[in-house]
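User: My advisor asked me to double-check a structure prediction for Chlorophyllase-like protein before group meeting. I don't want to rely on an old file, so could you generate it fresh from this sequence?
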Amino acid sequence: MSIAAVAASSLMMNRFLTAGAATGKGSGNALAAVAVAEYHLGDKAFTDRPDWPGYSEMKAVVHYPRRLAKEKIPLIVLLHGQNNACYVPDDGPSGWPCPKGVKPYPSYHGYDYLGRALAQDGFVVVSLSANGINHFMGVAEQRAKLINQHLGMWQKLTSSGSGPLAGKFTEAVTGRQADVDFRGRVDMTRVGLMGHSVGAQAVMVTAGDDNRGKVPAGVRIRGVVTLASAGGRSPDDESIVSRTSFAVVSSECWREGDREFFDNARGRTKLPAFFVRVARANHNFFNTAWTTGPGSVDKDDTGCPQTPNRPTAAQQQNFAATYLTAYYRLALKDDKGGMPVLTGARRIAGVDTKVDKLP
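Assistant: Sure, here is a fresh prediction for Chlorophyllase-like protein from the sequence you gave:
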């Protein structure tokens, strides 16, 4: 990359750090530049039999640049973790699909702040809903298969305009059919994944060295981020990632097992890998639908509630948006301008980190 390109990239990163994009409080022009659509193919559209007896929805919210460039742009898929499937009290009726009159819990909308920030930066961002998997207690393998099924649909859509997603996009606000054509606009050889909590295990399994053959034809995963993972997995399992770049974002006041993802790649990978320990951070604040509020499952789940100088929810979310933007620029665009953010050399407001890097 030229000196001029690096300087321009650094300027863009500085602008992002001060724009408030993470919380949706950026400039009106920036927010207006992002369009939002959804698709929903049915609450029982995903199955994994005979390995798993349940079923789940094929549903997602999509943030994308309102003016799609003529050249193809990268795709990023986000996946939430385990939580209630529906808006019901703990002792109320349960089931999937949700009982009549009960709304699904919007865990997949908890990353809208990430979708906005990344779409402003030139990515198509797809946040998946997995409430059925949550209800039927699916594990990382079911979530990984869900990711691959969505990726396969996007590959068909972008390559030929066909497949299950053709004509299925609706405007997020009005519900009317969305006037958007992704055909030839998305580069499925530059795909990023992000998983939160048990979703983190799923994205590592999806990108795992032993599972590369399960990724749909024409799709290449080039970057993976885990947020506050529910824990790592043993070093001899299918979540070992050494042939794809990744970043592990670990919350100090949550759990420590996610370091296994990073340590498993030591001595194996030649690609950039980061382990980021976020001081005093909790698990839930990375998802706005799980952040302290009126919902039955909204809470501050920190393991160190009395620790002073803990990041606020807004600070954790701003950190996630800033760090992930820098990371996906590196992994999907080969843009090294955000490296000071990735290594911790440049501090993000309100958040302290300790970063290890491979190789």
